[in-house]
Amino acid sequence: MQIKSLSLRLLVSAGLVLAAFFALASVVLEQGFRESAEQALMEKLQVHVYSLLSAAELKNNGDLYMPMSLPEPRFATPGSGLYGFIQLAKKNPVWRSPSAIGLNVTPPPELSPGTMQFLLTEQGRYALHYDVIWKNVVGIEREYIFTVTEDAQFVVNQVERFRKTLRIWLLALGLVLIFIQLVLLRWGLKPLRIIVKDLEAIEKGRKTHLDGDYATELEGLAGNLNAFINSERAHLERYRNALADLAHSLKTPLSILRGCTESFNDNKESVREQILRMDEIVEYQLQRAAAKGEHKTAGSVDLSGIIKKISASLAKVYIDKNIKFDITVPEQVPVYYEEGDLYEIAGNLMDNASKWCRSTAKVSISVNQRRGRRDFAVLLEVEDDGPGIPVEKLAEILKRGVRADENIHGHGIGMAVVYELVGLLGGALEGKKSEALGGMKWSVYLP
What we know:
The chain is α+β, with helices and mostly antiparallel strands.
């Protein structure tokens, strides 16, 4: 079964590390305590050996004499666990303590005079052997090995008590450390819980982006998530705008087709032209909605030809107004933009001029114009002799859904589309009162 919780994973990992550490520590401490207990026992047995040496006496005939009363009472008590032996080197024992009655002497290892050796015998006893050369007053010399043994149960009991105490303390310490680790994990993972809560708030609409004071390691993640959220919202907004732009772009061709239905046979070419134009609009808007923001190099497009086509179409749409289009454009103006973008910009501006004008709409194109500190390749100007737009409303009508006059039919997105496209192309849009016609004048600067 997979563990999905990050906190549980870290806690289990920390618990396993602590368990392994405590197990190794327990083994090391227990071994250290055992060696310390054995060292203490060896020193204790060494004292007993010296006490036997002090009690022993080498007679003039060379025999060893041991008194009945020894300094350590345990030597006189059978089964006391402390046993003493004395034997000539490489010979049988010459003395054993009363406590060792019935016990076999532990064979001593090879020793040189004046040395001692501490070891654990096969009988489960710790033994200390000490080799000594003894010379009496008459010059008789003997080599004896003094051996003192004690049951290993003494060390075993000490080690067992230490092991139990150590395990209790290590268990208690482990539980305390796990609790501390749990508290630290909750504190350490708190930034993750905060960012999760903020994401839930974004999902429920209470927030628009991640704006918390996150940990340094999460700042990059928060930035990437914000970029992703903004990108998705931009895509959604683009799709919505594309649908609105599509509806708005199809409005003019549909109006022309509606006018052509009254005399279809006389307007077959216009109908065919508008159907082709509608197909191009749909294709253009679909590509624009699916675009990811990359810049694509477009081929050369004649802006003058586009202006002339739009004016011809609008003359049919607003045939009742008998609009006079004053077109002042060069013979050809090749520009390197998407044809659909130019149709959107010029078409919306000229459609608005036709809608609001009384009788005249003026369109002009200039090349190599300068505005402020920038040089622009093309300047497109569209003017009308209508009522114009109040200065205080100029900024408002560039927003989607806002119309200059709510009583006039429309979607209120034409100028917003123009403003967005001009901005994307790196140009500038400027609106003011027309000095020549008295109505509105829109100037589009394209780099």
